[in-house]
Amino acid sequence: MNEAILFETERMAFRRFTMEDRETVNVFLRDPEVMYAWEHGFSEDEVTEWLEKNLGRYAQYGYSWLCADDRKTGENIGAIGLIYNEDINGEACWEIGYIVNKKFWGMGYAAEGARGCVRHAFDVIGTGRVISQMRTNNASSRAVAQKIGMKYVATYDRIHHGKKEPHDIYVIEKRQGG
């Protein structure tokens, strides 16, 4: 396995993004359809900020959004990762997130990647609990969370760009002995 690869799933290899991945992330971060939960495709400055924020999280926590590449072709599927979030409804926790390039929608990559992230969080990071949060109207993200066995636990108001946005929280816990 390539040293840069943190872990793999059946179809994907996961590694940390670098600033050299700008063109790769532009494909999905600048696409308003992909970024509907953020209400807009990112600007060049927002892409730079997103990459820099990831580099900072890697330095601080070891993880953040990860580059999910097809194991056979090397083509980028999107960003799927483990983000240490210090305040989800007043609690610090590991969170999974998934932003999939539109070209790969409907092929099960988000669920496969999220499942791989959860397994990595339990087995390598050592946490016993992983959450996912999504806007209450984000049916696709909710479906992924449910598909991998996450359970709804709460809705809270997250402040985003100065406005309240209700978000659902889903949780999966490591089973004893597993």
From TrEMBL:
Q: Which residues form the N-acetyltransferase domain?
A: 12-176
The organism sits in which domain of life? Bacteria
Q: What is this protein called?
A: GNAT family N-acetyltransferase
The organism of origin for this protein: Christensenella tenuis
